[in-house]
Amino acid sequence: MSKPLLFAANWKMHLHPGEAGTFLDRFLTLDVPRSGRTVVFFPPAVSLQTVAARLEGHDHLLVGAQDVHWESAGAFTGATSVPLARGAGASAALVGHSERRHLFGETDQETAQKVAAVLGGGLQAMLCVGETLDQREAGTTVAVVERQLAAALTGVAPQADLVVAYEPVWAIGTGRNATPEDANAVHRSIRELLVGLGLPRSTRILYGGSVKPENVAALVEQPEVDGVLVGGASLDPASWATICATMAGVPGD
Ligand code: PEP
Which segments of the chain have a pLDDT < 70? Predict the structure, then answer.
């Protein structure tokens, strides 16, 4: 038996609507749908509607926003609210991606406000957490993700539509990634922390950071890894289709 897996593509600041349409035309010829697998695309905001329209009728191929503002409307030039993202076809939103935290100065408190807005607005929240290289070398990985999880998820209801993505900052876009065993160990800690926050043990936890067709299988074989969040390798339809075709056994089978 294969375990259900979630594959998430973070396109970052790439693929305008025309390019996104061309990507999906190619991807859909390569993709082999199967039960128990979900794929979520996080295109830039300008391409949300195009991607949503192209994926209509393809169950388990979903689209989400890369970031949202916590206010639902107003004078926030350049920002995308949850209702705007929903109106463009999004069913999920990334929150707290390390590029938002480290390049745009997003605070734990703002991440928490965004999680609340996403869940309150009826979207799935994909919360990203992860340590920097300095923090890893100082041995504070678990303390860092504990702080990020507690800040963002305290008070979130157990039935909330939540996914957590563990993305060590030093592994994003660098070609370096955590060993599958290291990723699994941090995922195990995250699962215990989620349970301590009153959230279900079954909450899906994705790994992200330089995932490629060559390393994805070993990562998703880990018992605590429920899927992957992919940046660079999700920008090529063939490499993304290969990643999305990966299967893994159910632990204990
Ligand atoms: C990401 O942006 O979330 C990411 C994991 O990027 P990459 O796969 O390029 O490391």
Answer: 252-253
